[in-house]
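This protein record is not my work; I was only asked to verify it. The record follows directly below this note.
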Amino acid sequence: MPKLPAPPVPSSLKSPPPRPGESGGPASPVDQAIAARNSVVDWVDERTSLTGAVRWMMFRKVPKGTNWFYTLGSATMFAFLNQAVTGVFLAMYYRPSPAGGAYESIRYITNDVFLGAFVRGMHKWGATVMVVLIFLHMARTFFFGAYKYPRELNWVIGVALLILTMVMGFTGYLLPFDERSYWATVVGVNINGTGPLIGPYLSDFLRAGPEFGADTLSRFYAIHMMLVPGAIAALIGAHLYLVAKLGTTAPPWTKAQKNPKLRRTEA
């Protein structure tokens, strides 16, 4: 596959040459701010060479007919970032202890912590929004045929992200440790235990033993807080790299323009 040339540097990031007769310094505070910004960018780029990677990632050509359907992936990533940020604030007060600690900490966050109810609501409803968005994004990818060559690996990564999102929602449902979340998790773990071959082992792993208890809550908290978000972040990085490398597909209703130069000349 031929490589496209690197996109040019935007004019806003270039320092204009001085006019004849001028000393070369900026004439207004706005020009001074632009020159200072360019100096900082040049200083960082001289030591890291990151601007080439940023230009390769951000400034690229998109197919004709690109519309709002193509923003579902970015919206899903924004929902994940919302979950990560609000989850960090909730973890500052949450105690993964079944002996009244988990439920009481949630009650304390909701009723007593400044903006606690707002942050918890953002995290709770953000999980639902993320699940809905990732299903819509996968549906758009499927119906637009974006899973075909050469983007099969990106489709596989997307399926893995979908599974991890469901795992994160399942493990987070137990953390309030009230009656509804407890018995719903019991049902979910028992359903996993009916799977062939690895089902019983998966149930024992999730329960952290033969029965539900303190170790179960700690294991769900560790999976929800550290294991799954780390895996999702790594796969999102790989997903974005492949999107930037392979590009996006045009909508299926867009027809390619005919180029007369590509017609085969008859002898």
